[in-house]
Amino acid sequence: MKKIQMVDLQSQYYKIKNELDNAVLNVMDSAAYINGPEVKLFQQELENYLGVKHVIPCANGTDALQIALMALGLEEGDEIITADFTFAATVEVIHLLKLKAVLVDVDYDTFTIDPEKIKAAITSKTKAIIPVHLFGQCANMEAILKIANEHQLFVIEDNAQAIGSDFTFTNGETKKSGTMGTIGTTSFFPSKNLGCYGDGGAIFTNDDEIAHKIRGIANHGMYERYYHDEVGVNSRLDSIQAVILRKKLPLLDTYNEDRRWAADFYDEAFKDHEHILTPKRAENSSHVFHQYTLRILNGKRNDLQKFLMEKEIPAMIYYPVALRKQKAYYQESDPKDFVNTDKLLDQVISLPMHTELDEEQIKYITDSVLEFMNK
Ligand SMILES: *Cc1c(COP(=O)(O)O)cnc(C)c1O
Predict the structure, then answer these.
(1) Which domains does the chain have, with CATH numbers?
(2) DSSP string over 344-367
(3) Is the pTM of the predicted complex or chain greater than 0.90?
């Protein structure tokens, strides 16, 4: 059996190695390393794939979030509501910009921000909501957009983990994740569903004015060469990363299909176990399984992780600490308001999930999990 990895980027690369190597060498030869034609082409291809008017490539997913917030004309102390259970980048940029992060609980079954908790957290200072499409499926965007409309709030979708998933509204309309709010952001970190071979990110919007502003901010606040109208940042996608992404974008749906195949296999193996909850698929979002995350109900999650390690099966705890309890982002809170987050911190374990898992490996993983859980 091939060694099991949390993410197997090398095997994925070998399948398209020739094509990728040639494409990268062509960029080397062209000497258009920054803002070359490949970046523009990737931008257009991603716009087409997502069905969004503007894609602005940038250096990574954290920059994408920061630039998105910078483009909205917010003022110090304005409140941004986001999830307590997620990767730290979302709340980090809020703090960096001297805005106020208001962290709220998530839904126990989908791991995404709970719209009812958003409503309860709105004050006169609230300016935006950042739903994170965690682990590969969309937060409840229909409910979130309704709240945002009623209260005149911006919505920034952190789509770093769910690129390629679809959200279907009750009127039957379907949209790609990251294209429903005011702005969407994503990351092309190598292990993401659409990953490059270094750092990369992008920002999406259908709003022409906001797109113009974002392009300026990402380019030193410059709208006309050497005229700096505001304080910006330097955040670009390299041509080499762009050409790799151009080769991988046409494969994204197949990659996500491969992940779903693995998830189905896991689901089937664990479906009747009294102490294992498999990840619930939201009714209105397709799932692209950035992570496959179980909830272990018998209190032995940490022992299970150790047991799997001994069997050379990597398994990760995403995420072990609530953001509101992190030193950097500490927020006074009543545990009654964070029942789901606090349960999830003790129960979640993510199994290997990538495009290269084979049946033998998955069977070994599911057998091992069940061996421990049935002891
Ligand atoms: C990966 C990730 C980011 C940050 O992306 P980088 O490219 O690593 O900066 C932001 N938010 C979420 C939810 C992520 O998973």
Answers:
(1) 9-249 (3.40.640.10), 251-373 (3.90.1150.10)
(2) HHHHEEEEP-STT--HHHHHHHHH
(3) yes
